[in-house]
């Protein structure tokens, strides 16, 4: 998406779709009709990346922030609808990258936080070790097992409170039984125990007396596609001939807030849309030098004294951005070039562990946020409407 | 491959791994021990005083040791010899030792019996020698990694320590002033003193020549007061003053300086040899026998000798005892005294001739081998006999002073007396043997007379306690050995290179503690502890070698061949001829050479050609040539340069690279040589090839080898403020790390660190940790603790036992065992894998209540006969659970059953745990935050820990910043980066420029800073954050008190605890009456009084408030 040089804000309520897209970068919708001065507008929508610090990192909070300028900064749904846009730019396996425009960073961050720590998955929580003669200690083995992501929809299960007994509604039972042997050929069998060795027990524990886990009915119907680790090649332990591991695991539903193993994402984060701005058109030698320093990002047109540069596609030259920032600190280039970040244009990345599809995760996070907002509204209604 | 002119710089580093491969990290210990086993032992038993044992009872009898052998570590159990492995010893609390056997020759009646062993072992066992791990005798030597694993040994373990009674003990390197060398010093009055500490196998003595009123006097323990030195020389046969002057030197003002001494001698009336001896005799310490008048002296041959004889004897054998006097020919000793005097006179004229005691050339390091040799010789002399039929009375035994082979000698005497006595049944039969039945005496067998425990227990006890007691020299040292620290691999290796000195730690002298320029390259300048032992405990540098004793005779022969004229053969005047120099070998005068410079050059050439040992040093000191071949000198290898051109060339390094050459090839080819501290003074050593000039004689191999093993682990230490380096497979390694093997046994993790202030929980060096990182396993460690017990057997045939408690056995059928016996197995020992809670019994041991009186059936005693003596687990409650890891059942040397329980505790970092980077930047965990609250970068990176930037300015740990940059670049490029000390010019450390370049290529800021968003608000942070991986290590957790315990300790117990009586009704303080009852003076009743401990300050406060009409009431609550 090529950006044009930013000037003063042009307000055009009946804009076409293309204009709306551009407008979306101008921040969350507010209902003001009057225009802000250009410098304030820049502060409102852009972070300026100076070589040693970032300027204007804070977002607008109060609706009355510019009341004295005759500008109302209150939230306006219609404008939000017009400015909001989501565009998936990459979707590979469990990774998704999309751009989200026109929301405040508080919203984006809430979604990020919900995905990391409040979205449930199933993970191994209790390990009943029958035998473990490997060199890996019981605790360490259990810890490793706990971190294996499982491919199962957590929405099919209930949370299990500490005092609840394990049942088919809140617990999945997995079994691991391997023994390493030397085959007649001399090769070793099971010398490496991978996550694929974990077996699902839909009927529940095979030793209910010890694990106090009794299922009333089979889980086979509940989870027709079965329960298995997302990856089959996670190394759990290494064995030598004669060593064996036999254990049973109980998986329960939990959230990342409690332990990172329940976090459905390896990580999820966003960054702001970068913008390389020519403060004034460099000409001649300076232009040539800049184009040489930032190949691809700046295109040279003309030559000699008439040489000028045009900013190319910023997204395709991520690795040059830090260089732009450094150059903007050098006396020679400072008047010409600047790196900025667009405050309300997020490039969001979700790296799912595999239990959820990334877009489902995002949907869940949005729903979660909606329900949280509902709760707040509900709470507010309890109080009488009074002014303080 | 072609190497340019500057190519050598980058290639000569290859010599270092070759050196370490050939020698190993702890070579000093191993080679000294090997030297002890290989040659010192034989020398000891062949020494004049030790070789023969004679008998007073039978003058024809003698026992002669002909050879000595130390076998392989083995163990005899139930008459079966099995090979002993170190790990077996650790587990079974045994000593890793090998039998010492001897060949002997002795008389039986009229015949001479020669007893020799076979297969490299002697005929008679005399004791057991603890074996140093990885020495020649150790079973581990020469084993491959796989074989080592099979005997339960870590392939990376360096060895160099002992296993004694199951614990690993290191004999620390001891530093002391060199023996048999003249040291010129000043006394407290500023007078010049020449002192020599003489040390021979038989005797140690200290001789001083002091100045008093311009006179030179000999100060020695054997004389009651200081004696005139000229008189001493007279007594040695130099009668004329001219001769004295000629010996000392006639040049310059020497005669003037000596005049007061000569004058004094004249005043004392000493002109002839006889007069001199009379004069000395009057000063000999009265009455006392000259210590060890004869080598085989002892109290037996006390002759009545005239005092003159005594004086003569003292001069011959006690004063400067290391200078040999054969048949009272004092020629050598007189010359030696003259040299001492001459050096004193020099020092009087020019104070720069005063020696520096702290100069490292004057120091000798005593290693395990040397210390063991001292101890062994002492024990060998004391060695007694096996307890047999003719047991000696213990008290009787002690009444004799310790003499050579003392106990053995006495025992032979008693035995032989019996042999003589029995057949004829004479009346002068040994007093106690009359009580014996008149059995025919068995044939005399020397093996039965030799008692093995003196040596075995003596060595074992010394190593395990660290108390080195050498009776002969009245030497008593404590703390010679230490338990090997196994906190981390590096702490174990660091311990082996540690040097302690004999200086008192409390003395506030700076001299011995200061870093001496002569320590360059020999000792690590950074690695010394803080506090009282700072500068006294040092560490060897990476390439330092400590020499072992070398045979003197061939060296002396070579010196004579090269033109050294024996001092006895030249005229005294010629000794001091201009241009000629006295040649010393290990502090003794060898002779004179007329062209000393040529001699030194020739001698060095001989060494480079391998005709003399590589560690023999030769150097010019003033107007003397010193040759040293004694043990304990520190030396290091350097590249030889000819007129500034290094001898090591590209082709040699290529051969090394191809594996055709080893480090030793360089030595034998004369390209490298070892220089000791003294010889370094005669050399001009260039640090880099570019520094070489025409006068350069040597080139350093690699600059970072001046650091020790431990300091070498710190990346970029030369960028840090020096005190920060004084601390205890990261992404950013140093060459030392690779050489040591630390990359294979890492002790930390590469944490992604954000240097920022984020919340207030990171002030004062605290760090904020990411909880998700901890969840995923960051900073976990496993702490193992051993609990052990042994089952003892008692005299009345009862023994300890382990049983299930009675209550538990009864209940066993029905339910799980109750309470503290929950985890016990059927054998009464905790089961492996059980989770422990506080107070649970690990081993339910019971002891018999009566261990003295005989019992009828020791195997079937009632339960009531035993009382409980369980091993309980006293772990602290809370936190993670501890687990029984392993249980070991075995038997120890006393054949009693040993039970060991290993308890494992997997610790996850928690608030207050201490972490540190490798730059002495330690900090405690101040807060643990969830991942969602942590800041994140534009690439989604979330830091594992947050460190406050205020840690940097005052600490000046620039090295840490470079480490962060380097690690970040390493992650980007997928290649390990290096930060070796002083390594930039040689390409062993990446430069910041280079690292920044890589960072920029990877799209990062050249400065290592990132654009971060706050995890809490989601907004971008105003500051750019310095962020990247840094290697962090978890420090040993000090189990501390809780806050309440701490307050109690500080405010009460160690302050002013005071007991008061408080009335529970009115809350005011009462008192205790003389009869012990308590009374409240307000309520006039003693009914509701309670004793209370509180700080006296508190009691005073309440009373002072009362005096101001304020009533503070203590309201008590019964618990």
UniProtKB/TrEMBL annotation, chain A:
One of its GO terms (cellular component) is RNA polymerase I complex. SUPFAM superfamilies: Insert subdomain of RNA polymerase alpha subunit (SSF56553), RBP11-like subunits of RNA polymerase (SSF55257). The keyword Transferase does not apply. This is DNA-directed RNA polymerases I and III subunit RPAC1. GO terms for biological process: DNA-templated transcription. The keyword DNA-binding does not apply. It comes from the Eukaryota. Keywords: DNA-directed RNA polymerase, Nucleus, Transcription. SMART domains: RPOLD (SM00662). Belongs to the archaeal Rpo3/eukaryotic RPB3 RNA polymerase subunit family. Residues 15-24 have a biased composition (Low complexity). Pfam families: RNA_pol_A_bac, RNA_pol_L. Residues 95-379 form the DNA-directed RNA polymerase RpoA/D/Rpb3-type domain. It is found in: Nucleus. GO terms for molecular function: DNA binding; DNA-directed RNA polymerase activity; protein dimerization activity. It comes from Chlorella ohadii.
UniProtKB/TrEMBL annotation, chain B:
Keywords: DNA-directed RNA polymerase, Metal-binding, Nucleotidyltransferase, Transcription, Transferase. GO terms for biological process: DNA-templated transcription. It is found in: Plastid. It comes from the Eukaryota. GO terms for cellular component: DNA-directed RNA polymerase complex; plastid. Residues 24-382 form the RNA polymerase beta subunit protrusion domain. SUPFAM superfamilies: beta and beta-prime subunits of DNA dependent RNA-polymerase. Pfam families: RNA_pol_Rpb2_1, RNA_pol_Rpb2_2, RNA_pol_Rpb2_3, RNA_pol_Rpb2_4, RNA_pol_Rpb2_5, RNA_pol_Rpb2_6. It is an enzyme of class 2 (transferase). PROSITE patterns: RNA_POL_BETA. Residues 728-1039 form the DNA-directed RNA polymerase subunit 2 hybrid-binding domain. Residues 179-366, 482-546, 583-641, 663-692 form the RNA polymerase Rpb2 domain. Its EC number is 2.7.7.6. Its main location: plastid. Belongs to the RNA polymerase beta chain family. In plastids the minimal PEP RNA polymerase catalytic core is composed of four subunits: alpha, beta, beta', and beta''. When a (nuclear-encoded) sigma factor is associated with the core the holoenzyme is formed, which can initiate transcription. DNA-dependent RNA polymerase catalyzes the transcription of DNA into RNA using the four ribonucleoside triphosphates as substrates. This is DNA-directed RNA polymerase subunit beta. It comes from Chlorella ohadii.
